[in-house]
Automatic annotation (TrEMBL):
Biological process annotations from GO: L-phenylalanine biosynthetic process
Domain Prephenate dehydratase residue range list: 6-181
Protein name: prephenate dehydratase
Keywords per UniProt: Amino-acid biosynthesis, Aromatic amino acid biosynthesis, Lyase, Phenylalanine biosynthesis
SUPFAM superfamilies reported in the protein's UniProt record: ACT-like (SSF55021), Periplasmic binding protein-like II (SSF53850)
Lineage: Bacteria, Pseudomonadati, Pseudomonadota, Alphaproteobacteria, Rhodobacterales
Native species: Lutimaribacter saemankumensis
C-alpha cells in the first residue's frame, strides 16, 4: 500500500490521543476517527500508516474494549507511548473562573477532577469526549459552561485556560500502543524490549498456574496479565500479557515454549522497544 504519512486516533482534534500522536510522531498528520474500530480500519484500508490506541490509564485503569479489539485487528504493536494527562479548565475568551457554573468532559476526566470542581462549586456535565466538549463550549460561547481538556484542545478551539493541571492525581498518565500493518521484530531498544501477546489456557486443572511457571523459573518479568471473556462465554477466557524481553532472548524463548504446553491458542501482538518513561 502507498504510504500516507498519517496516524489515526479516536476522538476529535485536540483529544489526548491526538496529543499522543503529536508527541510520538510529530512528523505525521493526525487523522481523527469516530471510534477505535474506525482508527484500526483506517490502517487496514491504507488511509493511515499507523494507529494510536490508548490501553490503560494510571488512575482509571484499562480502557474498555481495547484488549478485545487488538487480537482481531490484524495489526501489530510497534511502539508504546506514555502521555502525562494534564487536565485544564477551558472557557470562552474573557471568562473569569467565578463565572463558571458547569464543566463538561468525558466522564473519566470529570471523575479525576472532583476536588477542584467541588472546591469551586462547579457542577459536572458528561460530554462525549474531552476535545468534543471543548469544541461544544467554543461553539456555544456561554461563559457559565467550561470544558475539561488539554492544552492542545485549548489551542485548536481558541479557548482560555482558566486553571491548569487540576487533576486529583499528580501522576495521571495514559499508555498508548502504536499499531501498524506490519510487525518488526528486528529492533532493539536502548531501554529494553517489550513483548505483548494473548493466549487461552487448556481446559485442565491449574492450567494458568502451570502456564505462568515458565516465566518465573526463567526470570522473565510479566508487567501485565489481564483476563476477559471471549464471545460472551463464561467458560472461554482469554488472557492479555505484557512481558519484558524479546522472543529471541533465551529466557523469553524458554518461557514461551513452556507456555505453549498449557495453552490452546497463543498469538504475539507485538515486539517493540520499551518507552523510557515506563521506568
Amino acid at each position: 500500500m502507498t504510504k500516507t504519512n498519517r496516524i489515526a486516533f479516536q476522538g476529535e482534534p485536540g483529544a489526548y490521543s491526538h496529543q499522543a500522536c503529536h508527541d510520538a510522531r510529530p512528523e505525521m498528520e493526525a487523522l481523527p476517527c469516530r471510534t477505535f474500530e474506525d482508527a484500526i480500519d483506517a490502517v487496514r484500508e491504507g488511509r493511515a500508516d499507523l494507529a494510536m490506541l490508548p490501553v490503560e490509564n494510571s488512575t482509571y485503569g484499562r480502557v474498555a474494549d481495547i484488549h478485545s479489539l487488538l487480537p482481531a485487528s490484524g495489526l501489530h504493536i510497534i511502539d508504546e507511548a506514555f502521555v502525562r494527562v494534564h487536565i485544564n479548565l477551558l472557557a470562552v475568551p474573557g471568562t473569569r473562573l467565578e463565572q463558571v457554573e458547569q464543566a463538561m468532559s468525558h466522564t473519566v476526566l470529570l471523575g479525576q477532577c472532583k476536588k477542584f470542581l467541588t472546591r469551586h462549586g462547579i457542577h459536572r456535565v458528561t460530554g462525549a469526549d474531552t476535545a468534543g466538549s471543548a469544541k461544544h463550549v467554543a461553539e456555544l460561547g456561554d461563559p457559565s459552561l467550561a470544558a475539561l481538556a488539554g492544552d492542545l484542545a485549548a489551542e485548536i478551539y481558541g479557548l482560555d485556560i482558566l486553571a491548569r493541571h487540576i487533576e486529583d492525581q499528580g501522576n495521571n498518565t495514559t499508555r498508548f500502543l502504536v499499531m501498524s500493518r506490519d510487525g518488526d521484530h528486528s529492533r532493539r531498544g536502548d531501554d529494553g524490549m517489550m513483548t505483548s501477546f494473548v493466549f487461552q489456557v487448556r481446559n485442565i486443572p491449574a492450567a494458568l498456574y502451570k502456564a505462568m511457571g515458565g516465566f518465573a523459573t526463567n526470570g522473565v518479568n510479566m508487567t501485565k496479565l489481564e483476563s476477559y471473556m471471549v464471545g460472551g462465554s463464561f467458560t472461554a477466557t482469554q488472557f492479555y500479557a505484557d512481558i519484558e524481553g524479546h522472543p529471541d532472548d533465551d529466557n523469553v524463548r524458554l518461557a514461551l515454549d513452556e507456555l505453549s504446553y498449557f495453552t490452546s491458542e497463543m498469538k504475539i501482538l507485538g515486539v517493540y522497544p520499551a518507552d523510557p518513561r515506563r521506568h
